[in-house]
Amino acid sequence: MQKPDLQITQHNDSKTILGFWVYLMTDLIMFAVLFATYAALKTSTFGGPGPSELFSLNGALAETLILLTSSFTCGLAMLAAHRQNKNQTIIWFLVTLALGLTFLGLELKEFSQLIAEGHTWQKSAFLSSFFALVSTHGLHIAIGSLWIVVAIKQIYSRGLTPFITSKLTRLSLFWHFLDIVWIFIFTIVYLMAKV
Amino acid sequence: MSLLFGKLTLAALPHEWFTIAGTVSMMLGGLGVALFLTYYKRWKWLWTEWLTSTDPKRIGIMYFVVASLMLARGALDAGMIWLQQALSVGSSHGYLSADHFQQIFTAHGAIMVFFVTMGFLSGLINYIMPLQIGARDVASPLLNTLSFWLYVAGAVLINLFFVFGGEFAATGWLSIAPLSGIEFSPGVGVDYWIWSLQISGLGSLLAGVNFIVTILKMRAPGMTLMRMPMFVWTSLSSMVLVVSVFPILAMTLILLTLDRQFGTHFFTSGFGGNPMLYTNLIWSWGHPEVYILMIPAFGVYSEVVSTFSQKKLFSYKSLVVAAILITLLSVLVWLHHFFTMGAGANVNAFFGIMTGVIAIPTGVQVFTWLATMYKGKINFKQPMLWFVGFICTFTLGGVAGVMLGIPGIDFQVHNSLFLVAHFHTMAIGGALFGIFCGITYWFPKITGFMLNERLGKYAFWSWIVGFFVSFMPLYILGFMGAPRRLDHYDASLGWQWLFIVAGFGFLIICLGAALQVLQIIVSVIQRKESMDVTGDPWNGRTLEWATSSPPPVYNFAIIPEVRDRDAFWDMKQYAVIARSAADEAILSESRLPRPSDALGARNDTQKITYKDIVMPKNTAIGIYISACTFFFGFAFVWHIWWLVIASAIGAIVCLIVRSFDEETEYVITAVEVEKIESINKSSTFPM
Lengths: 195, 687
Ligand code: HEM
Ligand SMILES: [Cu+2]
Known about the structure:
The complex is a heterodimer.
Chain A: H1 7-10, H2 12-41, H3 51-54, H4 57-82, H5 86-116, H6 125-158, H7 162-191
Chain B: H1 2-5, H2 17-39, H3 43-51, H4 56-87, H5 98-132, H6 141-159, H7 189-217, H8 230-262, H9 275-309, H10 316-329, H11 345-373, H12 382-404, H13 407-413, H14 417-447, H15 453-479, H16 496-525, H17 567-580, H18 584-589, H19 597-602, E1 613-616, H20 621-638, H21 641-659, E2 665-668, H22 670-680
Antiparallel strand pairs in B: 1-2
Copper (II) ion binds next to helix 9 of chain B.
């Protein structure tokens, strides 16, 4: 038998990676809309408290550090994957997952505090835009965490085949992307509340 | 009960004449199709050959079918609008309530933009673009079926209010806030509008990603960017716009949903909400959207004008630059839709100037096409007629558009029927004519036989005459001060006769559409006499003509090598030279790239060696995911929260299951390819 014409399969990897980049850009535009909304509505507090009264820098700083670390461990996982070291890859992804979940936990704690104090998203346009922006990022982290779980299962059962590592590359792109978005959230929502 | 069914109660079932009529006709239609399929035992065939197909050619045809149905629905709405406007004068109030009238024009606009024009264009890009770049498929076949099925889910959802709920949004096709907020639109109509757009918009977004990667990564060897056919360039431009602005639409709709269902205050009039924010967001998607529809049509015209003038495009480079400039500029003009809403003189001046600037590349295109025709051997077949018709309407619409882009004039005619006439000149005379132009041009490629020429000419003349009779009165009415979305006016204004004339125009358009249906039926019946056995009925220039009509699943048995912008034209020239050299040895020994397989096959003396071909398998995952998405939307409309959660989980599970699947391709062996190639020359449409 002759070798199959590989026109379709050949570039698969570079195709999916390019496609994933384009997807990430579309996601970035969605976040841009949320940032623009936040910027436009930040002062529309409807007589309620504004950013400077509501947000604490400490909590946000902790979240930032956790997420940055998780990006680092995700990178370590990818390095291990390229070395074909299955166990290490799984371990580093587990650490990443744990950090991601911690981040989510802290975020939910912040939300529940705000809500308990009566600062819900129904109270003002400013709070609506704050909750929308931050929780959209949080939702992404949740999806990313689910993805990590699936990825770990795949590594575990299939090993680090090219098919799997290509998926891992996209996962890590996604995770780093969320990190970058968070840096913007940290700057624009939390840091700028204090200046 | 409310836990199980949310807001959905028996009262939501049809009980007004139009919901009953809609429901009954949908049920009869569905029943008819079901009976047909059962009688001819075609269910399995439908499922395996079509619905689950990953072949972009099949998907393209399915887009055409759905878009045609939606065109009928949209045109019916247009007729109802017209009838009301012709009748509702002075003491008579016509046959529609004001609220129902509003729902109709909202549905008409949303359907025509999202499900007709977008649908047809997606179909064309799916079918033609891979052929033109010499590819066998698109980058992600799975994503491609998913895009299509999301589009279908949106289309079903926008018609579903007939059955459940009985009301559609009465807020205009863009549902401007705060009118679309829960305070002023408490019913489910706006929710239907939101979710049908959201879901089909998601489909468009995924298609955009897919097509961009396809064009950038899968071109045949030798096809550099500057050798891509214009239709590929314009598809790329349009898809770049899609991925740039559809996320804005998606997020805006999400925020509107949050406002309506979770009590947030983004666009409300109280609690610090900012309705102007909605206007800005929706138009910063909405204006590029009209270019998303127009740009691929420009590509179709470029292909047609060059083929039917038997000349290469006069200035390919300037057409490429024009497409890119239009793409870039179109995201900088959205504010011209609301000059009157108090942005201030300087802002208006900026956006007015940008709007004027965009007319420059557009004008360049028109002159390039005209220059291509100059001294060409023009063959006035149907596609060319649509093109010439387009030049006339487009010039008119362009002038009207430039007028509207001048803030001073816009203050006079804003929200008048002048505007309505302008954008229909563009939407019908530009985008829809472009679609017809493309369909008539590529019809033999798609089906394997020619489209009846004479009926096509009648259809064209009905459309264009009907168009002018229908919309010239609206220009005049606009100057006379008639606002758009008008369901009643005073007899003393003397407008009625103009509305009646416009209505006759609509009837002539309907005649045109009927002739098109007849044309297709007649062409199918007479197909034996009008087979396209060559695969190249128009003496074409680009690669889609290099393979048989209709093309085999894999498009090209041997991937062609491209040496020139008009790749197939070049191959034909080359073959002529080689043949006249009367020495086949030159051809086979020369180092030059080989002519395409089709040519090779026609040139029987040559023996071609085929290779195995890897193709994507069929998959139903796209259907399952979009079914889940459909229920997700439906559940949101009716606040059925358990179904929201269940369908979200369903979609995620489908994705996860699929991500474990490595066996998504199959092999067509070289022997099979050879067999297909030898019979394919005489086959017709895959019946
Ligand atoms: C089949 C031929 C068509 C006819 C006879 C027609 C007729 C009409 C009429 C009478 C209106 C209402 C004007 C008013 O506000 O008083 C309208 C609105 C509209 N049409 Fe069409 N139309 C046609 C095709 C299209 C197409 C192809 C598109 C888009 C691609 C389109 C997009 C719209 C939009 C966006 C509106 C505005 C809806 C609104 O006010 O919210 N129409 N059309
Ligand atoms: Cu515009």
